[in-house]
Amino acid sequence: MSFLNLNGHNELGQFKVNIYVNNDQFAKRMFVNYKSLGIDKTTKSHVFAFAKKNFDDYDETTQTQHVEKVIFLMKKINHNMNNYLSSDEFLNCVIELTEIVKKVNISSLLDIDEDLLDAFLENILSISGENNMPNISRNHRLLFALIDLILSFTDQDEEIVNSMCDKGFVRFAKFFRDNPLVFRRDKEIYLSLSKAACKSKRVRDKIMNVFVTNYFKLMIQNVADELFVSVFILLASYTTAPLSKTEYDHIAQCFKIGLQCGYPDALPYIAIGTHNLIKKKRILLDYEIEHLKIIFLLMTRRSDNDVLIEYTIYMATKLLLLHVNIFVDFAYIMNSLSHQNPQIQIAAAFFLSTVSNCEPRLLQNMNANIIECIREVHTHYMSAAYSVKSYFDETIVFLLHNPNYDKDEVFTLLDDGFIDTFVQILQTKKSDLFDLAIIYTNQLFNRSVEVNLYEKLSNLFTESYGFEYLHELMNNPDFVSLNEQRAILVESIITRFEHTE
């Protein structure tokens, strides 16, 4: 399907630029490679930082010492299993190893024997688990230390997390979560389960099986206040992988409950978790639509967390493009362009550019005034952070190419300094965006002749160093050789200006 069909005219001839993109390919570009994933990574890297352990960097000598120490401590713990309850040395080894595990990626330590690691994990899980509780509970200090050691291993890579899972880690976690013991590690357990779930499908499946049907919902209803956020970290980690209908229903229901409760710190996980449910979808099933419409409505009623606001706008964009019937407050989107948080500004720009580019009729259905949209983005352009301007660039270009407005209205922007903004956009490093911008430049100059505004436009373009920049491009052999047709168009704009002078 053609989403853009532009004609370029010049004194040297006439050519036609056609941009054709298959629907599926375009959707993939827009929602994976184009912007969404890039923005998503920025926020996600912060919100899901708990799952991405950044181990310390060491010089070669120190790293070697850590390797030797990990192997030494594992062997020592394995060899002293018979007197673990009464041995201070055993306890000290557990404590020391815990500190090293937090600093070193064990999977990178090639000297560690796989059999040694497997035996070690099996030993510490067996002596600290439910079956050995009558014995280990006699030494609370050791039990605490063992729990800390086991949970610290969830910082490790998928291979080690899977090995822990095979040896009973999830049952271990459930036992300490469910039983009213004197000592509690609920928050740490939820966080460790979340780390493990983010890294391994096998662990995700085991958690879902062990924490029985509807258990997530029961957790939310019963956990203490300080654990509420930890539960949603675990829930959000599940959305990083495909879900069955049952899993989807349970998690979506939990997100609805979370959005109606007064815990702002949980909202980023709900927002990103919900976004994960939809971001790669091409088609939504009926039960997914039913859940997402309710969740989106509840998200629009919360404004007490910036990540939630950001992802509510992304949700609106994707749901509209998937033809889900939702109400979007267009004035709210426009106001978000001036939000103090750059990520929210970017989300609003993404909404405008994506909808204008993919489904321009949607803006028309929202009674959006395209010229006023362009004017609003232009108004905030100069004061925007550098990271935001590249998104504003695309938004303005896509809005200018929107078919549903009177193109002559652009000339009403000339007295507002719009040409300064547009010349900056022309200096983009993105070749595809430049192509669209220079095609529009040619169209604008052509039309300015017809409406007797060429002199005014060319003067403003000169004052903004637009022609100077175009000359620089034409003096660059690489620019000319990379795209001959584009170079001809730029040259025609310059030539017409020089002949007019």
Compact description:
With 501 residues, the chain is mainly α. Helices cover 67% and strands 3% of the residues. The relative contact order is 0.07.
Secondary structure layout:
Blueprint: E1 2-10, E2 13-20, H1 23-34, H2 36-47, H3 60-79, H4 88-101, H5 114-128, H6 133-136, H7 140-152, H8 158-166, H9 169-178, H10 186-199, H11 201-210, H12 215-222, H13 228-238, H14 245-259, H15 267-278, H16 286-300, H17 306-321, H18 330-336, H19 342-358, H20 360-365, H21 370-381, H22 386-400, H23 418-426, H24 431-450, H25 454-463, H26 466-474, H27 477-482, H28 484-500
CATH topological fold name of the domain at 56-200: Leucine-rich Repeat Variant
Broad shape:
elongated
Largest sheet entry: 2 strands, antiparallel
Question: Strand percentage, roughly?
Answer: under 5%
Mean pLDDT: 84
CATH architectural category of the domain at 56-200: Alpha Horseshoe
Strand order of the largest sheet: 1-2
Distance between the termini: 42 Å
* Tally of contiguous helical segments: 28
Q: What is the rounded Rg? A: 29 Å
Structural summary, described in words:
The chain has 501 residues and is mainly alpha-helical. It has a domain at 56-200: Leucine-rich Repeat Variant (Alpha Horseshoe). 67% of the residues lie in helices and 3% in strands. It contains 28 helices and 2 strands. The chain has helices spanning 23-34, 36-47, 60-79, 88-101, 114-128, 133-136, 140-152, 158-166, 169-178, 186-199, 201-210, 215-222, 228-238, 245-259, 267-278, 286-300, 306-321, 330-336, 342-358, 360-365, 370-381, 386-400, 418-426, 431-450, 454-463, 466-474, 477-482, 484-500, and strands spanning 2-10, 13-20. α3 packs antiparallel against α4. The protein is elongated and about 95 Å long. Residues 1-39 have low confidence and may be disordered. InterPro entries: ARM-like, ARM-type_fold.
